[in-house]
Specification:
single chain; about 170 residues; alpha+beta; six-stranded mixed beta sheet; 5 helices; about 40% helix; about 25% strand
Length: about 170
């Protein structure tokens, strides 16, 4: 965790177990997509350090359709996030939906999540648009004391975005 600021590791330590409990409960109750979006928005704020009133935009309009969430920092979109219901497995058609959103807006970073599983993709703007999975995170299996887990979480967090951790 050499390059992760202490305030971030402290936040991870405090918030990860809190959200693991919420996610387990939500999965047991088989919450719908709308309720899963609410949990993901809280995770973006409390675990990943975004201001949910400034940095997180819901229902980002894209050519007559809507992506569930977008992370906007400094006026530009950094990530598009497509959220599925917590009980759903993430599938190729869900990914294709998110890729289409990113391709239409020219946003290279896409996150597909059901709250528990977070898949991060980088789009390659070729013909046709291609995608590459850069990492997967299972929040329920994550342990902030493991360097690898903390570094994966750091890729999504606001401080990681500021350092372009994901680009590296």
């Amino acid at each position: 965790m050499s390059n992760i600021p202490k305030k971030v590791t402290d936040r991870f330590s405090k918030q990860l177990s809190f959200f693991q409990k919420i996610l387990r409960d939500a999965k047991d109750r088989d919450l719908n997509e709308s309720n899963t979006v609410t949990i993901v928005t809280d995770m973006l704020a409390d675990l990943f350090g975004y201001d949910k009133y400034i940095d997180v935009t819901s229902e980002q309009a894209i050519r007559g359709t809507f992506c569930d969430l977008a992370i906007k920092v400094g006026g530009s979109i950094k990530f598009l996030i497509e959220v599925k219901a917590i009980g759903l497995s993430l599938k190729d058609n869900h990914l294709q939906q998110a890729v289409n959103y990113g391709a239409n807006l020219g946003i290279p970073w896409i996150i597909l999540t059901n709250g528990i599983n977070w898949e991060i993709y980088r789009l390659k703007f070729e013909k046709p648009v291609d995608k590459e999975k850069t990492c997967s995170i299972d929040i329920l299996q994550s342990n902030v004391r493991k360097n690898e887990d903390a570094e994966r979480l750091f890729l999504i967090c606001k401080e990681g975005l500021a350092n372009d951790a994901i680009g590296e």
